[in-house]
Design goal:
The complex is a heterodimer. Chain A is α/β, with parallel strands linked by helices. Chain A has 3 domains: 129 residues, Aconitase, Domain 2; 136 residues, Aconitase, domain 3, CATH 3.30.499.10; 180 residues, Aconitase, domain 3. Chain A is built from 16 helices and 20 strands. In chain A, the strands form 5 sheets. In chain A, strands 6-5-4-7-8 form a 5-stranded parallel sheet, with helices on both faces. A 5-stranded parallel sheet of chain A has the order 18-17-16-19-20. Chain B is of the alpha/beta class. The chains are: A alpha/beta, B alpha/beta. At the A-B interface, strand 3, helix 3, helix 5, strand 9 and helix 10 of A face helix 4, helix 7 and helix 8 of B. The complex binds iron/sulfur cluster (SF4).
């Protein structure tokens, strides 16, 4: 038996932001509690070829090409785009061109001035809006939740399902609120918040939950910082992350190419103002953190939960009561080439990577540049802006010159060294200070050792040639 | 999709925690069409040395792990990237059931869509099974989705699986066919939501 839920407006009692987003998108509900949801925005990228192949095998067609957008990001080279040397990579990019053209899907392709990483492009173009359901065959789709959207990553079969029906079956996740109050210390920001949360609750600590980030420290974040936090929700195992839309959100959206304008924007904003969780809405789980107690954080191991303040030391497996955890630490230390008890600050690095959908927006590049200005990097490194538009803006502001003068490479936008699919990778055994979201084994290349941190901390690591506390380097700088 | 009712045979005691999908299949192997098979990529970088030779000690590289249809792992299996290729690699290698205490959400959903059962077994039972497999690697393990039990030796313990997923696996149902039976509801919803939230539609024509 299936109940048709209409548009789910008449629901009594206080509701969370997530409850409202869910109710607004239920097409039908099954007694088991899972629901068929309407999807407002769907992004595809080069890796979506599996889904297009499934569509083809079924002789299906794209139900809503107008709500579907293609972005070339995962495989695009970050240098010399006129000659894509690797034929397999060229084929991936051509396939996306062909699949989007065949189905009438708008594409932000490799040579488009709007190209960039899908989770940077969506918000930048005004495709990401409060109150929407948004999906993409990419787990970091959670990024878009920063606008008060219900945004989550899906697999290839689900991508094919959305292409063919513009809907998706979902189980309703439980609701979790993570509140961060207090005033952060200088040099500490969104990346340190989210890494501290993951360290506290574990890489599966939010599994099965829709997470809402709240509290004064979250409210005072820019949209870039909010996106960084929501981006890494998946690293805590969450189904999605979200932040209630407010004036910061509305100011950001206004004037974006695809965003509503004029009377339509006013009508939209009126509805968006009703989205935040009601005052007495209940969450299944609540966690709170004090921003003033968070220091700059780096990871030391091979899971994002392996995160510690920069003034800490590498954990000692012999002090672990739990044998399974001790074994995991030993394995991680062996992979990372670290020893128990070693100070984190001072661990020598081989290169830096500033980029990815976590931390390659203009604010991130400014934060890194403010540390690097007038200084030299002791190690080589790559700076790949989050989008072509971010790249142009950074160049207008002169940030590219700061990076180049410091000795880092300034390249085109794409996923690049975050995942190594396009050929930008960290050589085996090398240690990389990275602004990305995953320190998994081999993520940045086979045998690569990744330390996650904020853009300012990655810049500090570049200057020091080792993991370093950015705070002293910020003294006297804005 | 092929229905899954009972699976019995050897189990591979992987025993690792936090096996993310980057480890299940490194990103550089995902360009191949599915029809060419993904089985040889399964856990490639953990299984092989720099030259590509198999590491003899790795559970998937020796019998009975190599021919196992059941994989036993610790918490947070399949976390990370949404890549369905992780499931293709497992399925094409011949794995039909995973037993672990917790899974990455997207991985579990991808698994079910490809007829692979992500059965949730308690931490204690996982430890017990891993110990039994350490003692007798050829231990015969049987998974029954009709009763939701896993058994080995003289032990039979219940596992959890979402009821909808269970139905789908048992019957080999395909989501898209089910969804298409609701095409009228979808069309009605679309009309209503476009009226109520006109800004939902794309804001601009590409040519405008
Ligand atoms: S930048 Fe990295 S995490 Fe983000 S979408 Fe690309 S590969 Fe995924």
């Amino acid at each position: 038996m299936v109940r048709s839920a209409g548009n789910g407006k008449a629901r009594s009692g206080p509701r969370t932001l997530f409850d409202k987003l869910w109710a607004d998108h239920v097409v039908v509900e099954r007694p088991s509690g899972d629901a068929l949801l309407w999807i407002d925005r769907h992004f595809v990228h080069e890796g979506s070829f599996h889904a297009f192949n499934q569509l083809k095998a079924r002789g299906g067609r794209v139900a809503e090409p107008g709500l579907t957008f293609g972005v070339a990001d995962h495989y695009v080279p970050t240098r010399d785009r006129d000659h894509v040397g690797n034929p397999e990579i060229a084929r991936m990019i051509d396939d996306l061109d062909a699949n989007t053209a065949r189905h009438g899907i708008e594409l932000f392709g490799m040579r488009d001035p709007r190209q960039g990483i899908v989770h940077v492009v969506g918000p930048e173009q005004g495709l990401t809006l409060p109150g929407l359901t948004m999906v993409c065959g990419d787990s970091h789709t959670s990024t878009h939740g920063a606008f008060g959207a219900y945004a989550f990553g899906i697999g290839a079969s689900e991508v094919a399902h959305v292409l063919m029906t513009q809907t998706l079956w979902q189980k309703k996740p439980r609701r979790m609120r993570i509140t961060i109050d207090g005033t952060p210390i200088a040099g500490v920001g969104a990346k340190d918040f989210i890494l501290s949360i993951i360290a506290a609750i574990g890489a599966d600590g939010a599994r099965g939950h829709a997470v809402e980030y709240a509290g004064a420290a979250v409210r005072s974040l820019s949209m870039a910082g909010r996106m960084t936090m929501c981006n890494m929700s998946i690293e805590a195992g969450a189904r999605c992350g979200m932040i209630a839309p407010d004036e910061t959100t509305f100011r950001w959206i206004e004037g974006r190419p695809f965003a509503p304008k004029g009377a339509l924007l006013e009508q939209a904003a009126e509805s968006w103002r009703r989205l935040p969780s009601d005052a007495d809405a209940e969450f299944d789980r609540e966690i709170s953190l004090d921003a003033s107690r968070i220091a700059p954080v780096v990871t030391w191991g091979t899971s994002p939960e392996d995160a510690l303040p920069i003034d800490g030391t590498v954990p000692d497996p012999s002090r672990e009561a739990d044998e399974g955890r001790a074994a995991a630490i030993r394995d991680a230390l062996a992979y990372m080439g670290l020893s128990a008890g070693q100070k984190l600050s001072g661990i020598a690095i081989d290169r830096v990577f500033i980029g990815s959908c976590t931390n390659a927006r203009i604010e991130d590049l400014r934060a890194a540049a403010s540390v690097l200005a007038g200084r030299k990097a002791k190690v080589p490194g790559l700076v790949s802006p989050g989008s072509a538009q971010v790249k142009r803006q950074a160049e207008e502001e002169g940030l590219d010159r700061i990076f180049v003068e410091a000795g880092l490479d300034w390249v085109e936008s794409g996923c690049s060294m975050c995942v190594g699919m396009n050929g930008d990778s960290v050589p085996a055994g090398e240690r990389c200070a990275s602004t990305t979201n995953r320190n998994f084994r081999g993520r940045q290349g086979p045998g690569a050792r990744t330390h996650l941190m904020s853009p300012a901390m990655a810049a500090a690591a570049a200057v020091a040639g080792s993991l370093a506390d950015v705070r002293p380097m910020l003294e006297g700088r804005s | 999709m092929k229905p899954l009712v009972q699976v019995a045979g050897h189990a591979c005691a992987l025993g690792l925690a936090n096996v993310d999908t980057d480890q299940l299949i490194p990103a550089r192997f995902m360009k191949r069409p599915r029809s060419e098979g993904y089985g040889d990529f399964l856990m490639h970088d953990l299984r092989r040395d720099e030259e590509g030779a198999e590491k003899p000690g790795f559970p998937l590289n020796r019998e009975p792990g190599r021919s196992a249809s059941i994989l036993v792992a610790r918490r947070n299996f399949g976390s990370g990237s949404s890549r369905e290729a992780a499931v293709y690699a497992l399925a094409d290698h011949g794995i039909r059931v995973i037993l672990a205490p917790t899974y990455g959400d997207i991985f579990a959903s991808n698994a079910v869509k490809n007829g692979l059962l992500p059965a949730v077994l308690g931490e204690e039972e996982i430890e017990e099974l891993l110990a039994a497999l350490a003692a007798v690697p050829e231990q015969h393990v049987a998974v029954d989705l009709t009763t939701c039990t896993v058994s080995w030796g003289n032990r039979a313990v219940p596992f959890q699986i979402d009821t909808v997923w269970r139905e789908q696996l048992l019957n080999g149902w395909d989501d898209i066919d089910v969804t298409r039976s609701f095409s009228n509801e979808i069309a009605r919803f679309r009309t209503a939501t476009e009226r109520e939230r006109p800004w939902m539609k794309r804001g601009r024509d590409p040519g405008a």
